[in-house]
Amino acid sequence: MREKVDVAVIGCGEAGIYAAYELARLCRPLKVLVLEKGEDIYRRSCPIVAGKVRSCVQCPVCGTMCGFGGAGAFSDGKFNFTTQFGGWLTDFMPASEVMELIGYVDEINVGHGATRELYSTSTPEARALEKRALEFDLHLLQAKCKHLGTENNLRILQNIYEDMKERVDFRFRTGVERIEVLEKGYRLITEKGDEVDCDWLIAGPGRSGAEWFANQCKALGLKLLNNQVDIGVRVELPARVFEHITDVVYESKLVYRTKQYGDQVRTFCMNPYGHVVAENVEGINTVNGHSYADPGLRSENTNFALLVSNRFTEPFNEPYRYGKHIASLSNMLSGGVLVQRFGDLVSGIRTNEHRMSKSFTKPTLTAAVPGDLSLALPKRQLDDIIEMIYQLDKLAPGTANYDTLLYGAEVKFYSARLSLSGELETALPGFFAIGDGAGVTRGLAQAGASGVKVARVIAERLKGKK
Fold it and tell me: The whole model's pTM is what?
């Protein structure tokens, strides 16, 4: 079957949702079709989350990564108002425009149930924390942050879906196999064999589609730039260790440059009173963290990622595959996610079930298998992480306790970034790339902003043709 639409959007994550939302608002009665290989927001499910299994069973389409809302749907919903992290949109447009777009996305969220409560690094308490961190060469990045909560994040997405479903055509369980260039416009060949022709194409493949999208771009002759890959662990410790930090700024982005190698290590995705969770990226099990807004759903622990940023130069051009290979080593050793006590790691001892049973810090991810991270992570990254933990211990005493838990591997994959215009358009006219999977953002706020930006560009061009 072949059909014709005005705009086709590949992917229904944060970027794709807001691109379609803004197009439907600005360009009625434009025919917008969103193609998504996962399920709608009501049918998304994961056997691990549902408590049916302890480890990943390799579903054909991962319910935690794919579907309406993308990988962010089951996150704890941190929404950061900043250009200091969360993506590279300032490479394409002024910081003031990025902040306006982020604010606009936030207002849509608020209109669909999001909180207005903000944490900020500009309060007197946060300024004092920043000064204290600098005494230990730890740098607190500036931002305002909202915590939506895992349960509220899902509710907001459900409300947005209900608002959009009558104005936008969603095609779920419909993955795109190939992109073809027509004399005018583009043709998408779906995995079902159907064909969709469009005048405008917006690609928001998400994290799970990053490698597929990079391969499509190579086939189309589009220039790709090496992007970074972040490799590290998820740290879990008693919430009281970080309370004096999380009560002030909630999501503290602390950056440190190691003395041994000069590498940059940062905290990421901090979840006070949260839960460590497993996720699946194209068959590779990695680890992440969630945190609920409802106090009744909280744990006694706080978790956060420690990530070492790696950016590669020529001739190496496959950072995505490199990250997957590192994550696959921990999968090989443990059958899924591996966990080790910090004291055991430093002492060169493998954590086993017996040693874990003696830990004062109880893991929230019970499916994680005790093991030895030194057999999975490269020595350089592991040395960086250990040095960072000792540095954090000066700001938050107790971080380097023997029973602090380290889960691995945590890997943040970013697609090789396309060479794009200031309007996020590829070298092919009318073909735009947005979101995390296209390598231009890495978080809810800037992903949504990139979708709105492209929708407004298309709306202005259509207006100019009238």
Answer: 0.85
